[in-house]
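Retro notes, structure queue

What went well: the backlog is down to a handful. What didn't: a couple of records were mislabeled last round, so from now on we paste the full input next to the output in the thread. Example, using Phosphoribosylaminoimidazole-succinocarboxamide synthase from Thermocrinis albus:
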Amino acid sequence: MEKLYEGKAKIVYRTEDPDKYLIYFKDEATAFDATKRSHVEGKGIINNTISSILFQLLWEKGIKNHYIQKVSDREMLVWRAERFDVEVVVRNVAAGSITKRLGIPEGTVFPSPVVEFFYKNDQLRDPLICEDHILLLNLLPKEDIGKVKEMALEVNRVLSLFFEEHGIRLVDFKLEFGRLPDGSVGVIDEISPDTCRLWDMRTGEKLDKDRFRFDLGDLIEGYRRVLEKLHRG
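Corresponding output:
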């Protein structure tokens, strides 16, 4: 298959069907604009499995996304999508960059979810942007900005309840969106401990990539525990 793109954590291949791509999940962990990186054996398998579970859940709840099926331990088949260069972050609890930008103590529970937009641009280090910036840079049609925000909040509602049922708090997460072959907007990329902050609801232990970022414990152990909790449910 023709390789279309290779990123920090995944490789995208073209298939014989022009409307379908194959995503291969790698074992690479990166942080701080890839200045910190490591090979973590088994990470790709776990992220592919968790992403498959969560994308399937979104389909069951009527939320469009690019997922078709998991085809191997490390691969999922997806619909081709024209990616929007906007990352959407939904925050339920203060953690990460918002604590530094706004001086909010980590762990502060927000009265309602906070939605932020970031310009997906490695050279600019993915800066925080507003809706006017999205229009100025022509990153999304005006009519789709509200749609993307609405979908992100619905994803948050569905995933928050799902994780809570399995003893995990969904602190925040990043979503990417794109235009699917039928012209509709859908969630793309992955939903995994690489893109979500996930805390154990009983102990408060961090089970996501912050373990790697800040040397808080074995990365793969945290990811495995997320998967084990989801499977136990």
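Agreed that this is the format going forward. Reviewer comment attached to the example: The CA atoms of residues 134 and 209 lie 28 Å apart.
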